[in-house]
Design a protein that fits this description.
- The complex is a heterodimer.
- Chain A has 3 helices and 4 strands; from the N terminus they run ββααββα.
- The longest helix of chain A has 18 residues.
- Helices cover about 45% and strands about 15% of the residues of chain A.
- Chain A is of the alpha+beta class.
- Chain A starts with a strand and ends in a 10-residue tail after the last helix.
- In chain A, α1 packs antiparallel against α2.
- By secondary structure, chain B is mainly α.
- Among the domains of chain B are: about 140 residues, Helix Hairpins; about 35 residues.
- Chain B is rod-shaped.
- Chain B starts with a helix and ends with a helix.
- The chains are: A alpha+beta, B mainly alpha.
- Chains A and B meet through α1, β4 and α3 of A and α1, α3 and α4 of B.
């Protein structure tokens, strides 16, 4: 699967690691829903570390769409909530 | 649904919408390419804006450093003159200036990181735009409208996702730059108002004024002491002789007064001439 880390780029992650990422993603989701800032920080940090470790950077000129998108470290819980609430008209241009 | 899948759907929603609207999907290629070039311009402007803000911060950090050095010098001067109260005031102000310096240094680091991120984003987007252009020409030359659909879909969603990502990064940088500019403006105002004293040296702050007053007072005292010393040493005749030219000087002073009256009359005579 291809995972995009926002404002960083795309990584090709072997499907063997999908279960691990999905587990981390569930933790992230719970933290976002609970509005748990500390939980969000640690879940996000772990997720990003995993993607960077097991994933392989796609070249810059690759035009493949991603299967998953992960916020970067600079994203706050607030921002991620706003993104998730976006109806494709507001926050994300393009 | 999971966070990363939901985010992915949000990013691809726009691409799908644009594709659905177009009658001939090949048209969307050219339209998208135009949009991509616009976005590239936008990112580059973003990089330039952040750099401008960063340089302004650097200038302010320098100004604050000069201010801090000056206040330290003043506190030494004041202490040497036995004015601990004045030295304390200068050091208090210096600590406020140092606080500002620390804040600015943190902001500077944040801006620098933002600048690097945007520069990389612009490089990534450039590489993708170039790849897209090549792909676009191939698709247009090779496939009919019906065949092109699937081929276009993939390239289009890939670049559209990048555009969304870069767009977000630019937005974020703009927000930060704006916040920073407001702050930088406030510091400029502080520096100009003299609350932090203008380091360009146009206006004298009160500590400088007090130190100068003390030093000129000191000079007067020294001068008095010297004169007294001279008188005490029996140089009285010299002093009396010296008073003669000063009496003579009163005559030119009188002429000056009458001379000063003349220009005052001049406008009146000019008026008569008209």
């Amino acid at each position: 699967m291809i995972v995009r880390i926002l404002s960083e780029g795309q990584y090709a992650v072997d499907d063997a690691h999908a279960a691990l990422l999905n587990g981390l993603d569930s933790g992230l989701e719970r933290a976002v829903e609970a509005g748990d800032e500390a939980g969000f920080r640690s879940a996000l940090a772990e997720m990003l570390a995993q993607v960077r470790t097991v994933g392989e950077r796609l070249p810059d000129d690759s035009l493949e769409p991603s299967d998953a998108v992960v916020p970067d470290e600079a994203s706050s819980l607030e921002e991620v909530r706003a993104m998730l609430a976006d109806n494709s008209e507001g926050l994300i241009p393009g | 649904m999971s966070v990363m899948k939901r985010l992915k759907l949000i990013f691809s929603a726009k691409a799908n919408k644009a594709l659905d609207r177009a009658e001939d999907p090949r048209e969307t290629l050219d339209y998208s390419y135009t949009k991509q070039l616009e976005m590239l311009q936008k990112v580059r402007r973003g990089v330039a804006d952040v750099a401008t803000s960063r340089k302004r911060l650097e200038l302010q950090v320098q100004q604050l450093q000069q201010q801090s050095d000056k206040l330290e010098g003043q506190s030494r001067q004041a202490l040497a003159a036995g004015r601990e109260d004045l030295a304390r005031e200068a050091l208090t102000r210096r600590s406020a200036v140092q606080q500002q310096q620390t804040d600015l240094a943190a902001q500077h680091a944040a801006l620098q990181a933002e600048e690097e991120k945007l520069t990389l984003a612009s490089q990534r987007l450039q590489a993708k735009v170039d790849a897209f252009r090549t792909r676009k020409e191939t698709i247009k030359a090779t496939y009919t409208a019906a065949e092109a659909q699937a081929k276009i879909g993939e390239a289009f969603s890939g670049i559209s996702e990048e555009m969304g990502d870069v767009g977000l990064a630019v937005q974020r940088a703009e927000d930060k730059t704006q916040a920073m500019q407001a702050r930088a403006g406030a510091i400029d105002e502080l520096l100009a108002s003299g609350a932090l004293d203008d380091v360009s040296g146009s206006a004298k702050d009160d500590i400088t004024a007090e130190l100068e007053r003390m030093s000129s007072q000191g000079d007067v005292e020294l001068e008095l002491a010297r004169l007294k010393g001279e008188l005490g040493a029996g140089k009285a005749p010299e002093a009396i002789e010296a008073s003669a030219p000063s009496a003579a000087a009163s005559t030119p002073a009188g002429t000056e007064t009458s001379a000063a009256a003349e220009p005052a009359a001049a406008p009146a005579s000019e008026g008569e001439q008209k």
